[in-house]
Amino acid sequence: MAKGKITAQCKHCGEYFTIERTFYNRYEADNWEKCYENYYDCCSKCYKEQKRKKEEEAAAKITKECGYNLPELEGSAKQVAWANKIRADFIKNENWAIKIVKRWNEETKKKKMVDIKKNLEVSWKCRVAEMALKIETEESAAWWIDHRNYL
Ligand SMILES: [Zn+2]
């Protein structure tokens, strides 16, 4: 085993950072160091920051152009940014209503409740209608965050 180590400077913040990899032997480690010497130019902190910025911009674009009349979300800055992304991802999928119906069907099949289909139909219609209303009325960032796994 041999350790390869590259020190590089971040083009965004100017900080020096180190990348380490483990190789089978010195030859491979040296080779990697030589090949990738100038490859890394962004530290992990700035990489995360860039990624976050891109996600925020994408969410803002969807929020603006989606055709829904979306309320401003309330919460801490961090919550709002996260909830905006969750909401944008949700409405970006034009088939969200179908997704809800499908999930509803799967859930009920599991519960062996197919024989009371009519009641269920009403239920999923309610669920879709409820969600359509939520999109345009829910102002709590925490609500989107809490329900992110059920959307
Ligand atoms: Zn940096």
Textual characterization of the structure:
The protein contains 6 helices and 2 strands, in the order ββαααααα. The protein has 151 residues and is mainly α. The protein folds into 2 domains: 2-42; 57-150, no CATH class. It has a two-stranded antiparallel sheet. A hairpin with a 6-residue loop joins strand 1 (2-9) and strand 2. The longest helix is centred in the middle third of the chain and has 22 residues, at 44-65. The mean pLDDT is 87.
Short structural summary:
The protein has helices at residues 26-36, 44-65, 77-92, 96-110, 117-137, 141-146, and strands at residues 2-9, 16-23. The protein is mainly α and 151 residues long.
Keywords:
2 strands, 151 residues, two-stranded antiparallel ribbon, binds zinc ion, mainly alpha, 2 domains, elongated
Secondary structure blueprint with pairings:
Blueprint: E1 2-9, E2 16-23, H1 26-36, H2 44-65, H3 77-92, H4 96-110, H5 117-137, H6 141-146
Antiparallel strand pairs: 1-2
Helix pairs in contact: 2-3, 4-5
Instruction: Tell me the total number of β-strands.
Output: 2
Mean pLDDT: 87
H/I helix tally: 6
The gyration radius over C-alpha positions equals 24 Å
- Order of strands side by side in the largest beta sheet? 1-2
Low-confidence stretches: none
Largest sheet: 2 strands, antiparallel
Shape: elongated
Strand content: 5-15%
- Which ligands are bound? zinc ion
* Secondary-structure element pattern, one letter each: EEHHHHHH
SS class: mainly alpha
Helix content: 55-70%
Please indicate the count of domains: 2
Distance between the termini: 47 Å
